[in-house]
């Protein structure tokens, strides 16, 4: 497999965690979203992913984009360890939390949106994350065990950790979200989350390396 990734992309990070958890080795091709006006806009990369976004994964003779589509494919082809619970209610909760982050928070504070916000980008990002986290904190109080849904790592957790990293980068006050904070801390102790971290990627700038 070949993963086209950017060290700081939360969508890429989700997929890196999934690959690490499932023990799938891959080659990484960095796509710098800032350098050269954004390498994702090159004709070469547009041919790979017409949406001109990371991640993209070449695997088993196909090329997939969109992080949840990639993770779902990995789940179906490499079912252990599972990232979706067997219980239908818990499975639905995992998907709900993942969608909450992937559709309801992350795109609103994405690089392409922030570019258009100009001087207000920090305030905009903080507002988007805060409103999303207020709802997410409430949801997690009903679903969480050690992690987002019960005590097994799931697709929801793969979405949570990168989003908390974004919140910290945009200086969001995390004190109103004790459940989110607790789960994030527990997940960051796991090896798959450590090795996939933005501070430990081949394209991480020297000053941001762990």
From TrEMBL:
Domain GST C-terminal: residue ranges: 87-206
GO molecular function: glutathione transferase activity; maleylacetoacetate isomerase activity
NCBIfam families in the record: maiA
Catalytic activity: RX + glutathione = an S-substituted glutathione + a halide anion + H(+); 4-maleylacetoacetate = 4-fumarylacetoacetate
Entry's family note: Belongs to the GST superfamily. Zeta family.
Enzyme Commission no: 2.5.1.18, 5.2.1.2
Alphabetic keyword roster: Cytoplasm, Isomerase, Phenylalanine catabolism, Transferase, Tyrosine catabolism
Transmembrane segments: none
Top-rank taxon, per record: Eukaryota
Name listed for the protein in its UniProt record: Maleylacetoacetate isomerase
Record carries keyword Oxidoreductase: no
Localisation: Cytoplasm
Gene expressing this chain: Gstz1
Ranges of residues in domain GST N-terminal: 1-82
GO terms for cellular component: mitochondrion
Pathway listed: Amino-acid degradation; L-phenylalanine degradation; acetoacetate and fumarate from L-phenylalanine: step 5/6
PANTHER family to which the protein is assigned, alphabetical: MALEYLACETOACETATE ISOMERASE
Cofactors (names): glutathione
InterPro entries to which the protein is assigned, alphabetical: Glutathione-S-Trfase_C-like (IPR010987), Glutathione-S-Trfase_C_sf (IPR036282), Glutathione_S-Trfase (IPR040079), Glutathione_S-Trfase_N (IPR004045), GST_C (IPR004046), GST_Zeta (IPR005955), GST_Zeta_C (IPR034330), GST_Zeta_N (IPR034333)
Organism: Peucedramus taeniatus
A GO BP entry: L-tyrosine catabolic process
């Amino acid at each position: 497999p070949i993963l086209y990734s950017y060290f700081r992309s939360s969508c890429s990070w989700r997929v890196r965690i999934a690959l690490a958890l499932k023990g799938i080795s891959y080659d990484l091709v960095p796509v710098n979203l800032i350098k050269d006006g954004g390498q994702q806009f090159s004709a070469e990369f547009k041919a790979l992913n017409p949406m001109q976004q990371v991640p993209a994964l070449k695997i088993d003779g196909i090329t997939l984009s969109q992080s949840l589509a990639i993770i779902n494919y990995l789940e179906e082809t490499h079912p252990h360890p599972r990232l979706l619970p067997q219980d239908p209610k818990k499975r639905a909760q995992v998907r709900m939390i993942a969608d909450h982050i992937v559709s309801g928070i992350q795109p609103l504070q994405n690089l392409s949106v922030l570019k258009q916000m100009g001087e207000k980008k920090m305030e905009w990002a903080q507002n988007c994350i805060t409103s999303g986290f207020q709802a997410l904190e409430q949801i997690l109080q009903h679903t969480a065990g050690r992690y987002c849904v019960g005590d097994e790592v799931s697709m929801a957790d793969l979405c949570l950790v990168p989003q908390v990293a974004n919140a910290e980068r945009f200086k969001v006050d995390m004190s109103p979200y004790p459940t989110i904070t607790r789960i994030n801390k527990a997940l960051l102790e796991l090896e798959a989350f450590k090795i996939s971290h933005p501070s430990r990627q081949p394209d991480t700038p020297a000053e941001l390396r762990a």
